[in-house]
Amino acid sequence: MALTFDVDAEVGWLCEGEQYQRRLTTLSEVRFGITRGLPRILEMLASLNLPATFFVPGATAERYPAAVAAIVEGGHEVAHHGHDHLRSDKVGAHDQRIEIERAFEVFESLGVRRPTGYRSPAWELTPETFDLLHEFDFQYDSSCMGDDRPYYEEYQGKSLLELPVHWSLDDWPRFGWNIDTAGVLGQPSDLRQEWNDELELAVEEGGRVVIPTMHPEMIGRGYRFVHLRRWVESIAQRSDVWIATMSQIATHVRNSEESTVR
């Protein structure tokens, strides 16, 4: 199992259009993830001695270097999440390349280890993205939904290790309310129950990977965080669940394959 957090902050909205530059309330809500949500999450992980993976856009890292430093100092993995959080299906190959390269440059300037994992903004992978991930030698992707076990996503003769996600394990569809989309705010108790049900089935079946996707501005808010903390505390006491970073899981999968071949 991997605890994963997408640290988008303001970039998650600014990528949607210039109009969001004037929407200070909207931007303040996602900035909450940096000022309050992320510190809560890091404190929880430290108290339980658990690792996690944080997918950080380059522009967010550039804007909040102290937040990235705190993630690294906590012993967690920083993974690639684009630069300006541009959806791959809305831009061409050239812009996608720039997205990947610019984020790498930011991480290098901050002294962050070069990320080996990738998660496409909004989870939309395109043929161009697929080729670029191969070119830049990413060791895993976490954008697709073709299985509930680690598998290889294939396209035109190439394959890429996939650590799969799903909307039902994401906090954003439950809590990502705004004045444009409106909707009904979900209950954190419901999401916690679904996470736990998925985990129990994974333990029963074996060979599974459960990857909740969370956003500090969503899950890090007060009463929602209480549910996250209680759930993670309960898992930390179990002997039948391995909580690891995404890169650790990817390495484990590859090593297991090599053992089988031998």
Which CATH C-level class is it? Alpha Beta
Structural class: alpha/beta
Q: What is the typical, i.e. mean, pLDDT?
A: 92
Low-confidence stretches: none
Helix content: 40-55%
Describe this structure in words.
The chain has 262 residues and is α/β, with parallel strands linked by helices. The protein has one domain (4-261): Glycoside hydrolase/deacetylase (TIM Barrel), CATH 3.20.20.370. The protein is built from 11 helices and 8 strands. Strands 3-2-1-8 form a 4-stranded parallel sheet. A two-stranded parallel ribbon has the order 4-5. A two-stranded antiparallel sheet has the order 6-7. A hairpin with a 2-residue loop joins strand 6 and strand 7. Helix 8 packs parallel to helix 10. It starts with a strand and ends with a helix.
Observed structural traits:
262 residues, 4-stranded parallel beta sheet, TIM Barrel, alpha/beta, 48% helix, 10% strand
What's the quick description here?
The chain is an alpha/beta fold and 262 residues long. It has helices at 11-14, 24-48, 58-63, 65-73, 93-109, 127-135, 172-175, 188-205, 216-219, 222-236, 246-261, and strands spanning 4-6, 53-56, 77-80, 117-118, 140-141, 151-155, 158-162, 213-214.
Secondary structure layout plus pairing:
Layout: E1 4-6, H1 11-14, H2 24-48, E2 53-56, H3 58-63, H4 65-73, E3 77-80, H5 93-109, E4 117-118, H6 127-135, E5 140-141, E6 151-155, E7 158-162, H7 172-175, H8 188-205, E8 213-214, H9 216-219, H10 222-236, H11 246-261
Parallel strand pairs: 1-2, 1-8, 2-3, 4-5
Antiparallel strand pairs: 6-7
Helix pairs in contact: 2-10, 8-10
